[in-house]
Design a protein that fits this description.
heterodimer, A: alpha+beta, four-stranded antiparallel beta sheet, B: alpha/beta, six-stranded mixed beta sheet
């Protein structure tokens, strides 16, 4: 969906006129084509004159995507709708979105059928696009971007110009039309739209039916019936979807090729019945979880709004907008919540095996902690326990002032506030508080921001409400009162049969992993059918699973706060159920460990060791962001495509860690490496032919030994494509490899990368040692040079270590307004004003430019109250934000313990990439007597903050270099 | 972007072509799209092409717009004998060059069969940005190697020229695309540029569908030798035609 918030009314009108004209032209053309269909016998000529040749080529790239005009129309429509009635609107939209997601499953089988031979080509596009440009591939994840409009819009076009019927309104239609030579009947379509809008379930049923009625849908019927039968009952609805998500795998392996989404989708209909029950049940259990959680949240949120509106008109708007647009992501989270506990516990076991959990004191805290700690383990980065404890702020209104100790005590059980869900959770809690106090702590006048409504909504807040809508009928959404009791009921089953669930859960876990595998480009062996049930999966898969777990673990952190919130809402009972869930999973310790070791020998070793914070920070951030994205994917009921993304991501997150492990500098770089570069246009593959090295440094002087291997990255964003490695050659300083390292990457993307090729000594017991590297700017590479060339190996350069060595600067002004300084009781509490002016020279991570925005927190508060962001400035590495953020509730002494964290992010459709940040505070390393990692302001930053403290009511202007931030939480 | 000279101030640039185009009586609907930096003359060149008029006032395009024109296309045989004329209905999409419309305009890239990529001969930056525009196209167009014609516009303003013809030619050659120096003001090369693009599209179409269907002479038409060669390369596997 396009962000059209910047358009004026007048501009809308103009655009609508253009679209109207386009619709007329299309109608005219479709009339012409219809006439031709009858008269033209020659199929080939038909392809000519109908423009089908074009649609076919285009479909290879943009399968289900709307045509520009339709997309625009949909976007306009969406934006116009929004202001009208917010509360209902987001519900409605989510219903639409949900309904739309169903046909998407049904539709996709169309493609393999029609273009069976294109798989290879397409898949390579996919791999690239998924990392690069989310637009171009019909994955489920951009469902809210593509699909809802498509169902929505396809029909809406009829509204606009009723005669249009088949005029190639959407690509899919177009294709069907041209392929089959039939018109798509517009009428039922229209009906279904109405249904969609009005009732949730009937819509779900309706849509597939309609679609199956269209000529090209032969493959769809089996699915349709399934879905249709399931949908009328709400629980079942979710199950149905869930099933479709998990059952993808069994047939997947037959495809062999990595990214055949279509086949994936279609396989859904083929998947075995016996799996069904199992999964269904599974789904049910977890459904309860997320359902109740959301329920609670919604109720609160509703109230929340009421209370806050006076204060916070604008902020509230933002939230609503966010919800609306994020709806479609969130709703299926029912599905997604499956397997989380399982994963959590897996990681738990890993954790304990590594005996890192010495610090847990009480049972309760241990349970909560573990997921979080696991996070630490896998991402080897950021979060420290102390930090967590810290974020437990009871009240935002008293901001930094609030008593630390008290809050800590209160929330001991939930000290895993680091993950994204945290924000959500925190917010929820806060909402509760707000009910009581009806006082809003943070006021957000945004000065020059016109409409924060749509900007970057998809990335930031984990919306609280939407997920619920997926399961709950509309009226129930509004009810707050019976909440607790309902939760109680819903929760019961979770622990009552948690025992019997254990197995299922495990299967589920495996399935999920397999799903990932199925799509993983490098996955070579797949025997899902057998493995589906087996608990001792093949090692290769394990390896992948291991990487996955890194990703999963992020999610795990997500789940437990939710559970905890529930626990608190329902008191003790629930807590018990949580215990059950965690304990069930011990079964998995083993696979997990194995995985772990297989995956990355050195990583296991390094886990406990902290790699240089500076380094790990960048990468782990990326990883976490990505996993967040994965999170969303999981929620989408339409299956298949997300996993390839995720798989690649997870492999990245694994490899990323190893970048930093190892030891550079202890051995002097010497020698040469011989390799050749080529770009294979046909396979869209960048190939590095590594031939050999000569005269490498000797690592072990005593034994005179080096076991070298060659590793490559594409910079600056090495997490994107990951690393490639050659084999290890033992006991030689003149290794001969003759291996090809390959990256599936578009040429034009490649051209903004630097190739970093390094040689390492592999030490299976200790650290790998850096032997030298060479960096090649691929933009200036002579691609006609395909010969083997010798290159001198050089010592480590900073850019390789840092990933992004230059992060740009931020220009801003800050001021402190002490309480009462502007007259009696004005302001009533101290205020910190942050005027984010602009940023310069932001690093560009992708070829399409930077869409940046700034997030702001006042630490130690990491709640949503504390969170503010600017709008997204598109395609500009020197964005001007001109956004002012005001935090009140400050006492002068709080300035010593608080820290304003400003981070700049590159906003992509589903992921945000950290670009750099600053922390304004005293940099003392402690906050309210607790030592925290984020109190790490640089000298410059400290000076800036001090100046503000000393000069009340004056704007202090500053230009601060953006840097990487250690210990950054995974706040969304 | 400054107005280049203030003479005529047509109230309405939007002159939609006439009744003859209201029917569906043509053989092909071909969609082009003009792109390039803000102020390089995309709207003007299309206006010149469809209506033969020029409006020097700078009116920024809101997001997206299009114009239409009917032309006859004759593919030339090798012996110079024209084949049967084919009636083409051109839909010429005009895009806003302004940054703020970028996401909107790029959404339309994928629906165009060919592209007129414009820069301003009097504005070096617009020329430097050609590279970026091509990247955008490679990413957002219907395939990775769409047909593009590069136009250095405002060739009438020779005294203010900032981009040498050789430079531009060199760039075009690098991308293997035809280059024209056009003037929306006096019409120089405007038709030629569009028709060259049309020619490329028609040839691609033929390749895409099936060569055997086209009579030998038509396929081996003597188009641009350079572009012809380019097609050969392109055919090797990129766009699947």
């Amino acid at each position: 969906m396009l962000d059209l918030s910047f358009l004026t009314e007048e501009e809308y009108e103009k655009l609508m006129k253009v679209l109207q004209r386009d619709a007329e032209l299309k109608k005219k053309d479709s009339d012409r084509i219809r006439r031709l269909q009858g008269s033209l016998k020659d199929e080939k000529k038909k392809k000519f004159v109908t423009g089908e040749w074009f649609n076919e080529v285009k479909a290879k790239r943009f399968q289900e995507e709307l045509e520009g005009p339709d997309l625009l129309r949909a976007s306009i429509r969406k934006k116009k709708e929004k202001p009208e009635n917010e509360p209902n609107e987001h519900i409605r939209q989510s219903l639409e979105g949900r309904a739309a997601s169903l046909p998407s499953d049904a539709t996709s089988p169309l493609f393999p059928e029609l273009t069976p031979d294109l798989g290879a080509e397409r898949s390579s596009t996919t791999a690239l696009d998924s990392s690069e440009e989310h637009k171009t591939w019909p994955k489920p994840k951009p469902r809210h971007v593509i699909l809802p409009p498509s169902s929505n819009e396809r029909w809406s076009v009829n509204d606009v110009s009723p005669g249009e019927s088949n005029a190639g309104v959407s690509t899919t239609d177009n294709w069907q039309l041209s392929e089959k030579g039939h018109d798509v009947p517009p009428l039922p379509a229209k009906l279904s739209e109405e249904d969609m809008v009005q009732s949730s379930y009937s819509s779900g049923v309706e849509v597939p039916d309609v679609l199956s009625g269209t000529p090209a849908m032969q493959k769809a019927p089996p699915i349709d019936t399934n879905i249709a039968s399931k949908i009328p009952v709400k629980r079942k609805a979710s199950k149905g979807l869930f099933r479709s998500e998990t059952l993808v795998n069994p047939t997947e392996q037959t495809e062999g090729s990595h990214a055949k989404r279509e086949s994936l989708k279609s396989s859904k209909s083929l998947s075995g019945e016996e799996d069904n029950n199992l999964v269904l049940k599974q789904g049910a259990n977890y459904t309860i979880f997320s359902m109740s959680h959301k329920d609670e949240e919604i109720g609160l949120d509703h109230e929340h709004f009421k209370n806050l509106r006076n204060f916070w008109e604008k902020g509230a708007d933002t939230i609503v907008a966010g919800n609306v647009s994020e709806e479609s992501f969130e709703k299926p989270s029912v599905v997604e919540s499956n397997g989380r506990p399982f994963i959590l516990s897996r990681s738990l076991s890993v954790q304990s095996n590594q005996s890192q959990n010495g610090e847990e004191k009480s049972n309760v805290s241990m349970k909560t902690r573990i997921p979080y700690k696991r996070t630490v383990t896998f991402s080897s980065s950021e979060d420290e326990p102390c930090y967590i404890a810290h974020s437990r702020k009871v009240s935002a209104s008293s901001m930094a002032r609030s008593t630390y100790g008290k809050s800590k005590g209160a929330v001991v059980a939930r000290n895993n506030s680091l993950t994204e869900s945290n924000g959500r959770q925190e917010e929820e809690r806060k909402a509760q508080r707000c009910l009581r106090r009806s006082k809003l702590p943070v006021r957000v006048p945004s000065i020059k921001i016109e409409s924060p409504t749509k900007e970057g909504p998809s990335s930031t807040f984990e919306p609280e409400t939407p997920a619920d809508e997926y399961v709950m009928p509309e009226e129930s959404r509004r009810k707050v009162d019976s909440l607790a009791s309902r939760i109680q009921i819903l929760i019961e089953p979770v622990y009552s049969d948690s025992d019997s669930d254990r197995d299922k859960r495990s299967d589920l876990g495996i399935q999920e992993n397999m799903e990932t595998n199925g799509e993983l480009p490098e996955a070579k062996t797949r025997e899902p059918a057998e493995n589906l049930m087996s608990k001792e999966p093949a090692t290769e898969r394990e390896a992948i699973q291991g990487t996955d777990s890194a990703v999963f673990s992020e999610e795990g952190g997500d789940q437990s706060p939710v559970a905890m919130a529930l626990a608190r809402a329902n008191s003790i009972n629930l807590a018990k159920s949580m215990v059950n869930i965690y304990t069930t999973s011990e079964t998995y310790n083993k696979p997990q460990m194995i995985t772990h070791q297989l995956l990355e020998p050195q990583r296991t070793k390094e886990l406990s060791r902290s790699s240089p914070i500076l380094l790990s920070e960048t990468e782990s951030d990326t990883a976490s962001e990505i996993s967040f994205q994965f999170n969303r994917h999981k929620k989408t009921p339409s299956i298949g495509s997300h996993s390839s993304d995720m798989a690649s991501v997870s492999s990245v997150s694994g490899s990323v860690l190893s970048v930093y492990s190892g030891d550079f500098g202890s051995v002097d770089a010497q020698g040469t490496v011989q390799f050749a570069l080529d770009y294979d246009e046909k396979n869209r593959e960048f190939q590095i032919y590594v031939s050999q090295c000569k005269d490498l440094a000797v690592v072990d002087e005593k034994k005179g030994r080096s076991d070298p291997y060659v590793k490559t990255y594409l910079l600056p964003d090495k997490a994107r494509m990951g690393k490639r490695k050659t084999s290890v050659k033992k006991r030689t300083v003149n290794p001969i490899y003759n291996e090809v390292l390959r990256y599936k990457i578009e040429k034009m993307v490649l051209l903004i990368q630097k190739l970093n090729l390094s040689v390492w000594h592999n030490d299976p017991l200790g650290r790998n040692s850096f032997l030298g590297e060479i960096e090649i700017d691929l933009a200036s590479w002579d691609w006609s040079n395909k010969k083997l060339n010798w290159y001198m190996l050089k010592p480590r350069t900073l850019s390789a270590i840092n990933g992004v060595d230059h992060r740009g600067v931020m220009n801003l002004s800050i001021k402190y307004v002490p309480p009462g300084s502007l007259g009696p009781k004005n302001p009533s509490s101290g205020e910190v004003h942050i005027w984010v002016k602009d940023s310069k020279d932001l690093p560009q991570l992708r070829p399409s430019g930077i869409d940046s925005f700034v997030k702001c927190y006042v630490l130690p508060d990491t709640s949503k109250k504390s969170y503010q962001k600017t709008r997204v400035i598109k395609r500009d590495s020197n964005p001007v934000f001109n956004h002012t953020i005001v935090y009140d509730g400050f006492h002068t002494e709080d300035l010593k313990d608080a820290c304003v964290e400003l981070t700049v992010w590159d906003h992509e459709k589903l992921t945000n990439h950290f670009l750099g940040g600053i922390r304004l505070g005293l940099g003392t390393g402690t906050s309210y007597g607790i030592s925290v990692d984020w109190m790490d302001s640089t000298q410059e930053e400290v000076a800036f903050w001090q100046e503000m403290m000393s000069a009340s009511n004056e704007w202090i202007e500053g230009s601060l270099p953006l840097r990487s931030l250690a210990g950054r939480r995974k706040l969304k | 972007m400054e107005p280049r000279s203030l003479c005529s101030t047509d109230e309405e640039l939007v002159v939609y072509k006439d009744l003859t185009m209201s029917d569906g009586d043509y053989d092909y609907l071909i969609k082009f799209l003009a792109l390039g930096d803000s102020g390089v003359g995309k709207t003007s060149i299309l206006y010149q092409y469809t209506d033969g008029k020029f409006n020097s006032r700078f009116i920024t395009t809101v997001g997206i717009d299009f114009r239409e024109k009917r032309v006859m296309y004759r593919s030339n045989g090798p012996d110079g004998v024209s084949g049967r004329g084919q009636r083409i209905h051109l839909q010429l999409w005009d895009t806003a060059g302004q940054e703020r419309f970028r996401s909107l305009t790029t959404a339309f890239f994928r629906d165009a069969m060919g592209f007129l990529l414009l820069f301003d001969l009097t504005n070096e930056q617009s020329f430097l940005n050609v590279r970026n525009w091509i990247s955008q196209l490679q990413m957002h167009a219907y395939c990775e190697n769409p047909d593009i014609v590069l136009c250095g516009n405002k060739s009438d303003m020779e005294d203010q020229r900032m981009v040498k013809e050789e430079e531009a030619k060199e760039l075009a050659e690098k991308y293997g695309i035809p280059y024209f120096e056009t003037s929306a003001a006096n019409g120089t090369n405007v038709t030629k540029a569009v028709e060259t693009l049309l020619d490329l599209i028609m040839k691609r179409m033929e390749r895409c569908v099936d060569k055997s269907w086209i009579p030998e002479g038509v396929v081996r038409s003597n188009g641009h030798s350079s572009t012809e060669q380019l097609h050969e390369e392109k055919d090797k596997g990129k766009c699947g035609c």
